[in-house]
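COMPLEX REQUEST
Ligand: 2-phosphoglycolic acid
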Amino acid sequence: MSRKPLVSGNWKMHHTHLDAIAFVQKLAFSLDAEDHRRTDVSLHPAFTALRSVQTVLDADRIPVALGAQDVHWEQKGAFTGEISPLMLAKLNVSYVIVGHSERRQYFGETDETVSKKVRAVLAAGMTPIICVGENEEQREAGGAEDLVVGQLEAALRSVAPEAVASLVVAYEPIWAIGTGRTATPDDAQAMAAALRAAVVADHGSEAGAGVRIQYGGSVNPDNVADMLGGPDVDGALVGGASLDAEVFARLITQLRPG
Ligand code: PGA
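STATUS: Structure written out below.
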């Protein structure tokens, strides 16, 4: 099965809704139909900009998917400050980042809450982008692969194999996020292969063949083609280099053949 790459721009806590509108218009102008046929693109604005971005994508029929950066696992209730999967689905959100390392590190996200969120996103008809990754000490101690595979196994507990086949995993070594240091393309490929093998073992070969595995961590227009060179790396989750429309468009057009 051939998997279409997915390049996702995670804006984190950047861009007001006005900045976001200008960004989307600029990005749309810089990509052609071939880019969209070759590569799926998703944008993950802050919650406050989702509605504005959705309106521009719909009005101008721009084939870029809308994404969110996080979600709560309940559909509704007394959870002040939280956003439910149903609210996102109503805005035509397609992809929801779950378990980003910044959420694990600063906001108490655990394997257990990640697993609940994954199920809630799927139940609302959206696709989770499940983030996994080791920190520097864990890599130096030699336990990165077991740790990262363990994070994914915890996130996919009680998820049906058909659902696993259509979801997205982002392998993001924490020491590579926002640092300008990437994993080597070989290390990214090796980790993606280990993650895929774990999916095959736990959820079957169709799930393994279908799941898309992104690399994330300091991806930019100069390194994206190399980072996505391995057969098991199916796209990128991009932070810093997704903030400027011209840079992000250049990153996507690097995936044009030849
Ligand atoms: P970065 O962020 O591209 O700025 O390293 C990646 C991410 O956190 O998803």
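REMARKS: The chain has a mean pLDDT of 97. Residues 127-220 form a domain with the TIM Barrel fold (CATH 3.20.20.70).
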